[in-house]
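User: My instructor asked us to take a sequence, write out its structure as tokens, and then describe one feature of it. I'm not sure where to start. Here is the sequence I was given:
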Amino acid sequence: MYIDLKRAATFGVAGNFTGHLEQAGEASDFTQVKTKEANAPKALFPTFIPLPQDFVGQTPKFLSVFPFDEYRIIFPKGEEKLQIEPELAITFDVQYQDGKVVSLKPEGFCASNDCSIRKQGAKKISEKKNWGASSKGVGSNLIKIDKFETGGILDRYRIASFLVRDGVPHVYGEDSAVKDYSYFYQKLIDWLIEKLNFQKNEGPAEEINTYLNEANLPRKILVSVGATRYTEYGEHNFLQDGDKSVVVIYPGDLYTFEEIFHRVSRDNLEEDDISVLIQEVVL
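Assistant: Let's start with the prediction itself. The structure tokens for your sequence are:
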């Protein structure tokens, strides 16, 4: 499978794993955000919007800078605290009617590092996500989704992440089942459609429907559906020059976490049924 990310709009989901926002020090950003359920995600945020050349409109210009790099993360100048955000990313085919999203068809999934700057004072989530080229990444092995419901392929998959420092791998995020996202399957699709159409420009959130229309209603979108909770190591260790970020989406019925860890140690993760993203941090 393949998606041309330079022509797709890309997004992330904030707060889809219980406890992640608290660990990331971002829970206070959402104190005024009201949700229908206590465990509901807090917001959908943009990471890249494919705007036309010479664009003039409401979409912030920095969102038109392509941020994805499969091999490296360029450390943002003047910043100190940069963390891996290990996630599952899903590609969708989008249908519109009168400028609104009417359907999302899941097509494929892969590993995602929705890398984030931990800094105070950012008004919007996107300001901590897209700081320019090579600020995030997704795995190139896009695995086809057979059906997006309980009993489908994603029931089998897990998310693991590691920081390799001086050649030594450290477990960065909790090894987590994909199906343990707070919102997933049809519930996630319904939530995404609502946010793509009606999310308002309030607090850390943005009015995404305007952005989609200004981008001429892109037919493909990619959504990183939420970062896992960190291990104690991941919560307290930020990225440094020369580190390697590793995010692995793997079928838990075929591989154990211990096997994945050893494969990271040996740099031997390439398999058709695994999506892996390995990025080196450079200044």
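For the description part of your assignment, you could build on this observation: The mean pLDDT is 93. Try explaining in your own words what that tells you about the chain.
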